[in-house]
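FAQ: What does a ligand-bound record look like?

Like this one, built around cytidine-5'-triphosphate:
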Amino acid sequence: SRMLNKEQPLAGKKALVTAGPTYERIDPVRFIGNFSTGKMGIALAESLARQGASVQLILGPTHLRPSGNQIKVTPVESAAEMFEHAKAAFEEADIAILSAAVADYRAAEIADQKIKKKGETLTITLEKNKDILAYLGSVKRKDQILAGFALETENEIENAARKRVEKKADFIVLNSLNDKGAGFGTDTNKVSILSADGVTSLPLLSKADTADAIVTAITQTLTNHAT
Ligand code: CTP
Ligand code: CA
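The answer part, i.e. the structure of the complex:
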């Protein structure tokens, strides 16, 4: 009904979300990771589902899960695994939001045996992972909306704006790590949403409210495309 569509503007739409950290193995018992918990991405997946979208969440190692059971969760470990699942899911997706804290580098070689303690220093050679957001930007169709995140510690807006253009994303959500209550593991976030139209800075909000604001911005763009 019209009522239902108004309440669920994303009914019939497919959305893809990446969230959480990635773990890059260095030997059978160790990895290189980061402090992401996936909370923001899980909130985004839940917000998209509330708006009626059918959601696939590609989730790095975390014990957190979305509430309810409408969201299809695809657990992954490494950036390479996340890339393969994101690439496949994007073909059918109307919306992709890449919020994962993807490791920029992986170990050039994963040791077969546990690395033994030897010298006073240890050097591990790393090689670059593929950039999932930039890849999806390079294959994006006109009818798809792509959003990424940026975490910056200096020249925040300028660097985030450059990432948006270089990776061909419609939106970049800039995370402020400097403000109290914002960042890894917290329940609140303070972000700015960058698009071709400019910058919208949101106040300190719960991750659920931040997610709703991001999803609303995306929904408006989809609506504008359709008219
Ligand atoms: N990203 C990605 N794949 C990677 C690295 C990053 O998809 N291998 C995505 C992140 O999920 C995020 C966006 O790119 O949506 C920006 O991540 P960020 O770490 O801020 O930017 P980088 O391009 O990796 O640059 P740097 O870490 O040097 O600031
Ligand atoms: Ca990075």
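Follow-up question: can I read anything off the structure? Yes, for example: The longest strand covers residues 145-152.
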